[in-house]
Write a structure and sequence with these properties.
CATH topology: Rossmann fold
Largest sheet: 8 strands, mixed
Strand content: 15-25%
Radius of gyration: 17 Å
Distance between the termini: 29 Å
Order of helices and strands: EEEHHEHEHEHHHHEHEHH
Strand order of the largest sheet: 1-2-4-3-5-6-7-8
Shape: globular
CATH superfamily: Alpha/Beta hydrolase fold, catalytic domain
Length: 280
């Protein structure tokens, strides 16, 4: 697949720091919310999806979480999902969005869930791709993927090899993972301001991030849960707790797919979420 051209960057000066975002297209708003791996940022994670949704008649928006990409870090108060949801709400206010459908992967999925719980009127539909904050039924947790992310800045510090080891667990088939992608994530993860205050430091064992303890039964939004059967970061048996407890949820599982469904199954994924947002 050809490498998509990076769209123009925009910056929102928000109450607790600057956020970078990109947008394309017109129509109902769809916000893509990226995961929390080292070197992750909005367009990198959703480069195969943003323009496709714009071409299908949506206002397609991606942004960098605080502390990722070119967004300023902010102090995490409470849990990481709560702080990220606060930043998302500020960005929506800045963009004049009364509501939007949310497409969240991993950290982004937990962020979307918190916004749906705390400000349900701001959310149209929820698409959760291997969302964080759950608890597996049978799998060991934290997983090897989570521990590789959490220890990235420990020991002898970041390296290209460590980035490669993290990305290796994000996908089922790494044939599209280029050296350029690994180097790009390494450069993003080792910017001076990131090294000075790594995002999500100390958050793996923070009970405030256990979204399964919250009242998921109160989420009334139409919800599509997407999981890769071979997800080695957040295992697929996490999906069934969300499916059982969110009243209007459906589950779609991709075989031969890891944590990056939006990357590995991009064509099918883009059609699936566009149809879901239009018709439910």
């Amino acid at each position: 697949m050809a490498k998509p051209e990076t769209p123009k960057s925009h910056f929102a000066d928000l109450p607790k720091g600057r956020i970078r975002y990109h947008e394309a297209g017109k129509g109902p708003a769809v916000i893509f919310i990226h995961g929390g791996g080292p070197g992750a940022y909005g367009f990198s994670n959703f480069s195969r999806n943003m323009q496709s949704l714009a071409d299908q008649g949506f206002r397609s928006i991606v942004y960098d979480h605080p502390g990722f990409g070119e967004s300023q870090n902010r102090k995490i108060e409470g849990g990481m999902f709560d702080s990220m949801a606060e930043a998302l709400l500020e960005l929506m206010d800045h963009l004049g969005l009364e509501s939007a459908s949310l497409v969240g992967n991993s950290l982004g999925g937990g962020t979307a869930l918190v916004l749906a719980l705390t400000h349900p009127e701001r959310v149209e539909k929820l698409i959760l791709m291997g969302p964080g904050g759950g608890m597996p039924v049978t799998s060991t947790f934290p997983t090897e993927g989570i521990m590789r992310m959490a220890s990235f800045y420990d020991g002898d510090g970041p390296s290209v090899e460590k980035v490669d080891r993290v990305v290796d667990l994000l996908v089922y088939d790494r044939s599209d993972i280029t050296p350029e992608l690994i180097e790009q994530r390494y450069e993003t993860a080792t910017r001076p301001e990131v090294l000075a205050s790594p995002p999500l430091a100390g958050q793996v064992h923070n009970k405030a991030n256990d979204l399964w303890r919250r009242e998921l039964e109160t989420i009334s939004h139409e919800t599509l849960i997407i999981w890769g059967l071979e997800d080695r970061v957040l295992p697929v048996d996490m999906a069934f707790q969300f499916l059982r407890r969110i009243p209007n949820a459906d589950l779609h599982i991709y075989s031969k797919c890891g944590h990056w469904a939006q990357w590995e199954k991009a064509t099918e994924f883009n059609s699936l979420i566009a149809d879901f947002i239009r018709t439910g």
